Amino acid sequence: MNADKVLDAKGLACPMPIVKTRKQMKEMESGQVLEILATDKGAKADLVAWAKSGGHEMLDSREDSDVFTFWIKKG
């Protein structure tokens, strides 16, 4: 999946992946896609809930080894 920006949040514990995602999203325009890489197991539930509450769309998520990848479209 093509992303407009990539955020590397690997090695960060909750709540830092959300904090960094929110900061990056503020710099993006509506309709752009952010790819997030994280290793925190709680990131999946956190990012899904955050995207929904913020009016963004979780396009896809994948797990490869211990790295979770998320694609969120800015609302």
Low-confidence stretches: none
Sketch the major β-sheet. 4 strands, mixed
What percent strand? Answer: 25-35%
Gap between N and C termini, in Å? 18 Å
| Overall structural domain count | 1
Q: Could you give the count of β-strands?
A: 4
What is the highest CATH level, the class? Alpha Beta
- Report the C-alpha radius of gyration, rounded: 11 Å
InterPro entries: TusA-like, TusA-like_sf
Protein name: UPF0033 domain-containing protein
Family: Belongs to the sulfur carrier protein TusA family.
Organism: Planococcus halocryophilus
In short:
The protein has helices at 16-26, 43-53, and strands spanning 5-9, 33-38, 57-64, 67-73. By secondary structure, the chain is of the alpha+beta class.
